[in-house]
Specification:
The chain contains eight helices and five strands, in the order βαααααββααββα. By secondary structure, the protein is mostly helical. Helix 2 runs antiparallel to helix 3 and helix 2 runs antiparallel to helix 8.
Length: 242
């Protein structure tokens, strides 16, 4: 039987995990330095490359946030930022492989804005709406269509497939959604602690149960992103003798 009490047991991060976090941060610093490289000449003004680069920087930012949350013992929120890091990584790498897919990214924005507009235009949802706002939302509400054809969403799974990262999608992105990024039954685990066999109490405090897994996938995101970046920019290609 569960006891409705709040336990705040002191917990600390393992020194080994502190060391791997330092290594991950160094890898991110290196990634940011490498990412200052100019794009290939034919991509210098390409919107697909620019969007991919911005999403790569978002990947790194979300990885930084994940490490900070891990250090604080905020296991649940760390899953959310890790999931976001991989979402950005999938789209970044897919755009680097095929910058023309930027049109699909633009369509995604139109689709989501249309969904939001149609939702807000439903009777009783936004009663305080003024005439100007209604006009804007009505214009946006048809954005999910082009020439009478519904736009097709470029899903996160499709982006992961395009990037050649279906394994990371299934393992990290879907796994993070299940155990912490969404309001699932599994996501409540961080707020229970077993006080005796079969008896659990509510728990509010630091948890480091999944730190090793989370840190490892932060590091892997940086490795995967750098591999894709270097391949596009041919940074690892041997130089021909002059």
């Amino acid at each position: 039987m569960n006891q409705p009490s709040i336990q705040q047991t002191a917990r600390t991060l393992d020194p080994q995990h502190e060391a791997t976090i330092r290594q991950a941060r160094k890898a991110m610093e290196s990634a940011l330095s490498v990412s200052e490289a100019d794009p290939p000449e034919h991509l210098k003004n390409d919107k697909g490359w620019m969007a991919g680069h911005a999403l790569w920087l978002r990947t790194i930012s979300s990885c930084q946030a994940t490490l900070f949350l891990i250090e604080q013992g905020n296991a649940g929120p760390a899953w959310s930022t890790l999931r976001n890091a991989y979402e950005c990584l999938f789209y970044a790498c897919a755009l680097w492989k095929d910058p023309s897919k930027f049109a699909k990214l633009e369509d995604n924005s139109r689709i989501q804005m249309a969904k939001q507009a149609n939702g807000l235009l439903k009777p009783g949802v936004y009663d305080a709406m003024d005439a100007e706002t209604r006009t804007i939302l009505e214009a946006r509400s048809t954005g999910g269509w082009r020439d009478g054809v519904r736009l097709e969403e470029w899903s996160i799974f499709s982006a992961a497939e395009d990037a050649g990262m279906e394994y990371e999608y299934q393992m990290v992105f879907r796994g993070s959604s299940l155990v912490g990024a969404h309001a699932t039954e599994r996501s409540t685990d961080a707020h229970f602690v077993e006080v005796s066999e079969g008896v659990h109490s509510f728990y509010s405090g630091p948890r480091f149960d999944n730190a090793e897994f989370q840190i490892g996938w932060v590091s892997e995101a940086i490795v995967l992103g750098l591999q894709a970046f270097k391949a596009l920019h041919q940074l690892d290609q041997p130089h021909s003798p002059e």
